[in-house]
Amino acid sequence: FKQRNASIDLGYAESDVLDITQTLNTEFAIGVNTAAELTDEILRNARVQGLAVQEASNLSGILRNVFDLSIDQQRLFTDQVTLLSAQNKVLAPQVFKDIATHAEDLYLFSGSSLQEITRTVIQTRRLGMSFDKVASAARGILDFETSLRGELEAEILLGKDLDLTRLRQLAYQKDSVGFQKEMATQLGRAG
User: Fold this and answer.
1) How far is CA 22 from CA 6, 15, 18, 63, 73, in A?
2) Core-most of 42, 82, 109, 117, by most CB within 10 Å?
3) pLDDT tens digits for range 134-165
4) pLDDT digits (tens, 9 = 90+) for 66-80
């Protein structure tokens, strides 16, 4: 009953509380009682982070299960990302959304620390991209046969020599910030 009143005070419906509890329980194996206890804070975070309830639930589950952050640490993380986003002139809700929706790719292409993942997403947004585009490019670069064929086709179409070896190396090293910079350099040379 307490969760219901707090959610209504925040402008959410009872169904939002149920959605959060169900997501945390089924997607992140968090017990129903614990998940229900977390709903108030997740709804507050959703409001602060500019996320939909489902995205905020995913982000909270990821921060809790993958990075072992308590709800208090998640609040500090939210504050830090908001400040870093403002310093880098990117919108914090976009950063939170990228982390919530692309966690697996971020983990795969930028390393396993939350600091590195956050840095990658902010850098991506500074370059005017979303992480799904960077992940797609990195996946393509790591598929050698497709990558080499694409490189040859691009050289023919552009009439210029391209060397994507450095991009492949950076993708394998999980250096997505370096990957993005090198991709921008290669695109600048081609254009």
Assistant:
1) 18, 10, 6, 17, 22
2) 42
3) 777 777 766 666 667 777 777 777 777 777 78
4) 899 999 999 999 999
